[in-house]
Amino acid sequence: METVIGIDIGTQSTKALVIDAQGRILAEHSQGYQVDTPRPLWAEQWPDVWWDAVLGCLSACLEAPGIDPQDVKGVCVSSLYGGSGIPVDAEITPLHPCLIWMDRRAEAQVQWVKAHIDLARLGDITGNGVDSYYGFTKMMWLKAEQPDVWERTRYLLPPNSYINYRLSGEIAIDHCSAGNIGGIYDLAARTWSTDMIDALGLDHDKLPDRLVDSGAVVGGLLPSVAASLGLRSGTPVVAGGVDAAMATLAAGATRPGNHVAMIGTSMCWGVINQRVDAGKGLVSMPHVLNSDRDLYTFGGALTAGASVSWYVDTFCGEDKAAAGEHGSAFEQLEPAARELPPGADGLLFLPYLMGERSPVWDAKASASFIGLSLYHRRHHLYRAVLEGVTFALRHNMEAGTQQGVTLDDHLIVVGGATQSDLWMQIIADVTRMPVYTYRENVEAALGAGLLAGQAAGLLDLAQPLAHGTLIERCVPSEDAARRYDQRFTLYCQLYPTLKPIMHRLNANHIPSE
To answer: Carbohydrate kinase FGGY C-terminal domain spans which residues (predicted)?
Structure first.
């Protein structure tokens, strides 16, 4: 039986899976690790951690019952957004940890760009704005703060490009990963922007010339790697791309208008489209499918499920105790929270526990409960947290529609949040859209596997696949939707109202602008 392998390098774990010609998962394995945070706002990882995890996951999958390594016809790698990329020397040896997506150390570079670069032109060329989230500002930090590393750097490689090199010996960057760097990628021309690279003071020769589609074959599996895993030498290695776009593909997003919300530790809502307006505060890059034509535009909250976990861990010890060893505090909170009216009896929650990404883009934004009284109990605050994260979702969706994107009339949700029936209903009511979820676990590694399957000729992604079961989970209530419309208006007013206070409170914790 012919198979392919999808790999996803995540922020806290790597996962690999083997799928067949119908996209069904035959084997899977994951391996965890940690993010290095040596200073406040810093977040980095050495790529050897990823490589070791990839080899461990591949070995475990290929040793699973019923899996024959000789049947594998292709491998594809999805990865976290690698920010700066990995600085490697001429021997492709890493010189410095990768400054990953959550790293915020480049605030000084952000302010320099705002002061010296025509931001309208930057947006027109790249389809993106400026923030320390973006890789180009992190590259500027490396050049300014680590000049010795910068001088020795031959290439700056996204995580999947580096792993592809270790697998195949070939250097290439997929368009999805290149576009997500922002600042230096011409989104319309699908190539590096010489004008912006020069304006930002970066070095064109540190960016590989070979840009490829996410579904393109980068090279063949090296004999040494193949022998260690039992795979065939020369097995095609497919370029892959950014994990958010890969997970969106796995959820069935293959044409303009398809949109998916991934709600786990963070929240990422993305839509397939063919136009972009950087002024609306979203992030755009070529999609991992049909990347010559389609764009993946997304926005997200830094703390979604993380907001829920923070609240439960901090305030709900009694509920944890009541749940016992085999239960969950959520099981204690949800029944009472479900009985509350929309709006949690006058509470609003801003989910900015680590600053915020789109469309706010403010590292100094902070979280808050508004409307607290002696009447409120833990289940009120719990529901308010679910609603606050969902308002952040709608905030991003509205930014997408303001770009002129026409969305499908339903929303697909994937990730850990789908385990909560209450949260799914809140999402339907807040967004005024029926919510669909998958019965199976749909994630980025599966998207990578689907691309590998298409490259190997086993799958046709233009046709319906049997890789998952999509079910209608919730439909919106008109009464609840009307109430949430009013609350959402207040939610949108809170950030600009509280912003000066947030910034003053955080003045001693976040580098000044």
So the answer is: 261-455
